[in-house]
Amino acid sequence: MDRMQRFPYTVIVMLLFVPAVWAQNDLAGKISCHGAASGVPASQNRPYTKKLWDGYEISLSPARNAHGDGDDCTAAIYSGSGRVVFRTTGFSVIFDGTHTGQDFDGDGKPEIVFITDTGGGNHCCWAYNVVSLWPKPHKLCDIDEAGGVRFEKDSDGKMVIWQPIRGPYGFTTMARALGAKRVLRVREGKLVDATPEFCSRIFSDENENYRAWGHDLTPENIKKLQAAGSLENLENEDIISGLLSRALQRVACRQFDTALSDLNLWPDATRPRMKAAFAESIKQDYPDFAARLMSPDRGRP
């Protein structure tokens, strides 16, 4: 499987192959507010303000009128005239001082970045909130899965965003949860999927996961999955997770025929159920391939 995802929140960001900023460092930001149930002492949740550029200022503090349903903290950007031009509210909010000041959309202007937990402290729903101030203040994008996101600059100095994507649950334990990576850019003010640009890197020996697939997905190991009870055998989890993770990565790379070939290596008896679950997990982002998997012949070649 994708080796980095064997320990879901601690190793998940280790896919990439060049120096970049770790999301965990961002989530440990010093200018932050955390919900009452987070275990952070209330004394640390003091109000913060910070002056930025062009007269803008940010504030971050516990929300005054919180109802206890995930609205414990709030942060805002103020213009020079004192007007609120952006606000985010959540169970926890962090000012991302690492990426604030960087140019995400290639317009030569710096952005402001917060990280907001809208999941009530359940570790599921952190997102980066990227705000542009030019030509007028507006939210540029939200980047979900903040705990596994990684940023880098390409050879032209443009921002590249690596984001984890999840596959179906229930085929492995959480320690071997399958997944892949999507690569994003901001173009014309929108977050766009640029994964195919990077698939030659992903499917190369510089990627630890690619090397793991080569080790785990040998013909001999694939044959093991055909034996009775093999899918419930924990000793086969690397094979199971690797096979489904590689298929998911091929989908993200728009390599749909080879993704289908991977899925067709699954044992015949439970293949329809697996394909149905796989299709359900990808249908929002890859609806055509999901429909192909759900067709009457279940995507047979």
Q: Could you give the distance between the termini?
A: 24 Å
Structural class call reads alpha+beta
Describe the strand arrangement of the main beta sheet, using strand numbers.
Answer: 1-6-7-8-9
Number of helices: 8
Strand content range? 15-25%
What's the total count of β strands? 13
CA gyration radius, whole angstroms: 21 Å
| Shape annotation | elongated
Q: Runs with pLDDT <50, length 5+? A: 1-22
Arithmetic mean pLDDT: 89
Helix content: 10-25%
Largest sheet: 5 strands, antiparallel
Helix/strand order, N-terminal first: HEEEEEEEEEEEEEHHHHHHH
Topology:
Blueprint: H1 23-27, E1 32-33, E2 48-51, E3 57-62, E4 73-78, E5 84-90, E6 92-95, E7 111-117, E8 126-132, E9 138-144, E10 150-153, E11 159-166, E12 179-187, E13 190-193, H2 199-202, H3 208-216, H4 219-224, H5 237-252, H6 256-263, H7 271-282, H8 287-294
Antiparallel strand pairs: 1-6, 2-3, 3-4, 4-5, 6-7, 7-8, 8-9, 10-11, 11-12, 12-13
Helix pairs in contact: 3-5, 5-6, 7-8
Structure characterization notes:
Strand 2 and strand 3 (57-62) form a beta hairpin. Strands 1-6-7-8-9 form a 5-stranded antiparallel beta sheet, with no helix packed on it. It has a domain at 1-17 and 145-301. Residues 1-22 have low confidence and may be disordered. 23% of the residues lie in helices and 25% in strands. The protein has helices spanning 23-27, 199-202, 208-216, 219-224, 237-252, 256-263, 271-282, 287-294, and strands at 32-33, 48-51, 57-62, 73-78, 84-90, 92-95, 111-117, 126-132, 138-144, 150-153, 159-166, 179-187, 190-193. It is α+β, with helices and mostly antiparallel strands and 301 residues long. It contains 8 helices and 13 strands. Helix 5 (237-252) packs antiparallel against helix 6. It is elongated and about 70 Å long.
